[in-house]
Amino acid sequence: MNILLLDPPHIIHPPLRLWAANPGLLALAAYLRDRRHDVRFVDATALPRTWFDLERLLRDERPRVVGITANITCLVPDALNAARLVRRELPEATIIGGGSHLTLDADRLLAGPARELFDYVIAGEGERTLDELLAALEAGQPADAVAGLLICRNGAVRRTSPREPVADLDALPIPAFDLIDFANPVYKLTSVRDHIHINTSRGCGDTCAFCSESAFWQARWRGISAPRIIEYVAAARERFGVRVIDFADDSFNWDRARTEAFCDALERSGLAIDFWFEARVDHILRDADLLPRLKRLGCFQIMLGIESVAPKVLGSYQKVFNLRRSEEAIRLVRDQGIMAMTNLMFGDWHDDAETMEATYRFVRKASDFLVLTITTPFPGTPYHERMAREGRIEDEDLTHYDFFHAVMPTARLARADVQRLYYRFLQRFYTQPRILWEGLTDANPYKRKFFRFILRHVGREIARRPWRQPNFVAFEAFWAQREGEGWK
To answer: 190-462, what's its fold?
Structure first.
């Protein structure tokens, strides 16, 4: 069956501008091709004039089925707008939604802003559900027997039986890297050029209250095998000559045995790559003996989720923190010449200027690179349920649910104060003399690139001259122009 897998046009957030083709849709595309469906993949963020070009593509190709991803909360409005455009241009097309946010927030969305936009929504993992749904559509049969599905009819939503996750991820095909237009200039805008996202696992075993990934994957980790990781990497290298790999997993080194086997397999393969990944503090401590080997094989950066040093804040997040262990993990990473990227969140109900100052002091000297985010109550998470129940959420605009906008106050700070302190501490970190010096002189070339990139961003923010995405056209401007033209 003819299907268009669409990642709608999005604004690329400026701090690192890390943009790459959607790995989830590439995995879906590969699976559907293996099942003999006619698949077209479009990353509309990379189109020269985004919404205008997407409109032309729909008119020219007229796909029978359009699958639209809504994986990240702040990008959900773009997915809804894409569905509106498809409805306008192709009223007979079947529109299928998917992604973690649509799964977690389906009832609210389908009763409100997404009403009448989607015919079906994939709830959870998509490969088998979408394949079976397409088969039912092609045969003209009802989809009630397809597990893992929300069926939307006449304003009502009906859920089918739950879908069990894929037990053996190695059985899935290699993502369809060949569908990426890697020469597209949008993929050259990032702080590290010529990189690719590769997912080697799904989920993690943590139960952090704020994490939509934990909620979506039900706090379960599944990974492909080490030899299969190398097959993924080799396919990307062969297709594009890509050297920089972002292992875009929630926790790449969750399983020590797999990490050891990965090092063995990468060493045997002879593949020359540079890579980075996200990890837990306790897994870094557990795998301290593997760090020299990971560095030798190309690991240049590890991100650690510290979040806060305030006990009440961490309790609100359902996270456990040990200052000494976190300091040790960061030291171990830095001692190997691997860049330690620490992720902090600020803006929980228990946060104030003092807790932020204490957390900042912790990372100021210990960390190489700071990812400072604002606490965000993502719909579908326990954290959102609690904040909504206690009446603390003030801003319901989903475009602001991006880790960079304050959508709720704290006990002692108004939303505007949270936002102000966020910028203040970000500026303080990246204007330290140490940071400025290392941005010019550090032996790690990626560290120099990252620092120069972020310093340009901070400079633009201070000067109130933010970076503008050169090809982006806002949906509102596109829609208004088309309506002004009589929508020819």
So the answer is: TIM Barrel (3.20.20)
Phi, psi (deg, nearest 5) at residue 348: -65, 160
- Straight-line distance from the first to the last Cα atom of the chain, in angstroms, rounded to the nearest whole number: 29
Measured distance CA(417)–CA(409) in Å, rounded: 8
354, amino acid identity: E
Q: Do domains 2-159 and 190-462 have the same CATH topology?
A: no
> Which distant-in-sequence residues (6+ apart) come within 8 Å of 345 by Cβ?
210, 307, 308, 317, 373, 374, 375, 403
Taking the C-alpha atoms of residue 363 and residue 434, their distance in angstroms, rounded to an integer, is 13
d(CA 40, CA 385): 37
Both tokens assigned to 470: 């050169």
> Residue 301 in contact with residue 338, Cβ under 8 Å?
yes
Q: Are β-strands 299-307 and 274-279 bridged in parallel, bridged antiparallel, or unpaired?
A: parallel
pTM exceeds 0.90, yes or no: yes
Q: Are 221 and 203 in contact (CB under 8 A)?
A: yes
C-alpha 475/C-alpha 82 separation (Å) is 9
Pairwise CA distance, residues 314 & 392, whole Å? 18
Q: Where are the beta strands (DSSP E) in 79-169?
A: 94-98, 120-122, 149-153, 156-159
Q: How far apart are CA 155 and CA 152, in angstroms?
A: 7
Contacts of 30 (CB under 8 A, 6+ apart): 172, 173, 174, 175, 176
CATH code for the domain defined by 2-159: 3.40.50.2300
Instruction: Give domain limits for the chain.
Output: 2-159, 190-462
pLDDT at 384: 95
pLDDT in tens, 34-45: 999 999 999 999
* β 195-198/244-247 pair status: parallel
d(CA 124, CA 102): 9
Neighbouring residues of 36: CB distance < 8 A, sequence distance ≥ 6: none
Q: Which residue has the tokens 């959870």?
A: 124
Residues 234-263 have pLDDT tens digits of 998 887 888 889 999 999 999 999 999 999
Distance CA 394, CA 390 (A): 11
Query: Cβ neighbours of residue 488 under 8 Å, at least 6 residues apart?
Result: none
The number of C-alpha atoms within 13 Å of 248 and in the hemisphere containing its C-beta is 18
pLDDT digits (tens, 9 = 90+) for 181-198: 888 888 877 666 678 889
